Amino acid sequence: MGRVGLYTLAILAALASAGPFLWSSITATKLNADLYNPQNNPFAYNQPATFDHVRFLFTETTFPTFAWNTLWVGLLVVLITLALGVPAAYSLTRLDLRGSGTLGIAIFFVYLIPPSLLFLSLTRMVVWLGLQDSTWSLVLIYPTITLPVSIWLLIGFLKALPKDVEEQAMIDGYSRGGAFLRVVVPLLFPGIVAVVVFAFTLTASEFIYALAFISPTSEKVVSTGIPTELVRGDVFHWQSLQASNIVIAVPIALIFNLFLARFIAGFTMGAVKG
């Protein structure tokens, strides 16, 4: 009975988590007459489904441009976050630097500063570099959001890794850099995946900086482009809005589940192959 209760709770939790996605999927393929009739069941098809609103999203709006801008900005921000965050976290955790604990806490406190307090000063820097109304401004600014919490997250993972494996690699002839690349990085793989997912989803959902720094439609990302393109005055293209949610969410979910299978392997791969 205990196991039955546990599985029942797990199923209910899964349904609650998947509920918004399922509702968006149904709404995105509903007819207008079906969606706006208050007597119809909002969680089922009362009339035949249609993909007209999905086609409208890709053919009658600039959503593909928004999605492409979001993709390449997100990938660059992830690469910058990893290139700076992993060495920074390693230095603060392993090199016994004076004041490293205080510095780690200070880095995390930077993340707690509301973006609404920073975008005015960051605007001056963007204008000085000539990146206003350019998507490259987001590549410059977003790491200021992703780096602090990513470093803090990686510090937690590194503290959980024993130093013995790394020291043994250096005894076997590796330099500190070699031990870091061949032993620490594979063991740190779960934390790296967490940082990748966090940085990309934060980049795709950030709104204030994208709204403040970019005006041209061709340079917008999904967080600002979709509201301006699919909400026109008092007309809401509701089904297309829900379709855009699905198109953005599905790739992120697939990528995360693709890496999920390597979580366990990441804990031991460095120890046996380092």
TrEMBL record:
It is found in: Cell membrane. The keyword Kinase does not apply. The chain crosses the membrane at residues 66-90, 102-123, 135-158, 179-202, 246-265. Pfam families: BPD_transp_1 (PF00528). PROSITE patterns: ABC_TM1. It comes from the Bacteria. GO terms for biological process: transmembrane transport. One of its GO terms (cellular component) is plasma membrane. Residues 67-259 form the ABC transmembrane type-1 domain. It is a multi-pass membrane protein. Belongs to the binding-protein-dependent transport system permease family. This is Sugar ABC transporter permease.
